[in-house]
């Protein structure tokens, strides 16, 4: 067993892990932060996307020990300080950017990283950035609209279509 310490959603945390423990398992099992989903175990789907030192990573492909000293942000840390939904989360709700919701945490985390890098992306940039995140339900159309709306760009509301 190895001791690991990091900051998760602004809070210092530590725990004992085996050398093979994945970051996603440390978050879900040790810290009980179950918003980060395990979808494929092969880093294909992006459901486990978190931010490590402000960079999006697939937590199923990072060892917990490799996150030693890192600053980790999960979907649980995305809400505003008062508990209300962040701009991105609200846009996903407003523009129906989810159906079953399984991919949503990873999509929101990817969207946050994109908007940090490119505050006003084009639709093509959004679609390209989401290439590593799979949604089996929505067809991505409303996810893209939600991200565009979260960037402050005018989007035709879903109800108006």
From TrEMBL:
User: Is the keyword Metal-binding assigned to this protein?
Assistant: yes
Which residues, by range, are in coiled-coil regions? none
Q: Which PROSITE patterns does its entry note?
A: 2FE2S_FER_2
In its keyword annotation, does this UniProt entry include Mitochondrion? no
Q: Name one GO molecular function term.
A: oxidoreductase activity
| Record-annotated 2Fe-2S ferredoxin-type domain positions | 2-78
Sorted alphabetically, the keyword list is:
2Fe-2S, Iron, Iron-sulfur, Metal-binding, Oxidoreductase
Q: Which PANTHER family match?
A: OXIDOREDUCTASE WITH IRON-SULFUR SUBUNIT
Q: What is this protein called?
A: (2Fe-2S)-binding protein
Organism, scientific name: Palleronia sediminis
